[in-house]
């Protein structure tokens, strides 16, 4: 039974990493990264180039990783509850009721808290996140290709156009002016 709890904790940490990383990818100040890269910061250069080259793959990696983690946690937790119920007869036939508690656990510790932390510290932790995401991107690459293929089919069927240029937010424009204006 201890092995179930260790595996559940492992996948909960993975879920927290993937869901937090997703928000960090969107929250990181790319203009600042670009500026630091131009100033000679090698780490910033590597991260900036990785984001420019493989951003969509990293996002797909976080989504697939989060989904696989949640499925694993849920399956393991339900199995744990059925086994645990054998030792405590009063829990027999109430496993489903207790299984719902995993929703609260994953929502709080696998989604809300990590996303808050990763968003707040995105500019600092992006250097840690990218190498790990790169590893998982390689491991999950067949699923990423499949997801991209399905997305293209859905976009084609519903006549959704590709990426469009988006307008910069006020903060992004100010960052751009401050970093580019200083040259």
Topology (elements, then pairings):
Elements: H1 2-27, H2 30-38, H3 42-85, H4 95-99, H5 101-120, H6 122-139, H7 141-157, H8 170-181
Helix pairs in contact: 1-3, 1-5, 1-6, 2-3, 3-6, 3-7
Describe what this molecule looks like in 3D:
The chain is an all-alpha fold. It has one domain. Helix content is 83%, strand content 0%. It contains eight helices and no strands. It has helices at residues 2-27, 30-38, 42-85, 95-99, 101-120, 122-139, 141-157, 170-181. The longest helix is centred in the middle third of the chain and has 44 residues, at 42-85. The model has no long low-confidence stretch (mean pLDDT 90).
Q: What class would the helix/strand composition place it in?
A: mainly alpha
Order of helices and strands: HHHHHHHH
Strand content: under 5%
Mean pLDDT rating: 90
* Count of separate DSSP helical elements: 8
Instruction: Please tell me how large the radius of gyration is.
Output: 21 Å
Number of strands: 0
Largest sheet: none
| Cα distance spanning the termini | 61 Å
Contiguous runs where pLDDT drops below 50 for at least 5 residues = none
* Multimerization state: single chain
């Amino acid at each position: 039974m201890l092995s179930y709890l260790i595996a559940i904790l492992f996948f909960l940490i993975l879920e927290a990493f993937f869901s937090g990383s997703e928000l960090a990818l969107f929250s990181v100040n790319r203009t600042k990264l670009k500026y630091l890269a131009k100033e000679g910061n090698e780490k910033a250069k590597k991260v900036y180039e990785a984001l420019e080259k493989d951003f969509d793959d990293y996002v797909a990696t976080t989504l697939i990783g989060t989904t696989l983690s949640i499925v694993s946690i849920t399956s393991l937790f339900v199995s744990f509850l059925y086994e645990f119920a054998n030792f405590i007869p009063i829990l027999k036939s109430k496993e489903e009721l207790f299984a719902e508690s995993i929703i609260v656990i994953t929502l709080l510790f696998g989604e809300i808290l990590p996303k808050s932390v990763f968003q707040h510290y995105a500019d600092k932790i992006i250097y840690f996140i990218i190498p790990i995401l790169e590893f998982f991107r390689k491991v999950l690459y067949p699923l990423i290709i499949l997801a991209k293929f399905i997305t293209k089919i859905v976009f084609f069927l519903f006549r959704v156009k590709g990426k469009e240029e988006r307008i910069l937010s006020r903060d992004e424009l100010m960052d751009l002016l401050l970093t580019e204006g200083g040259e």
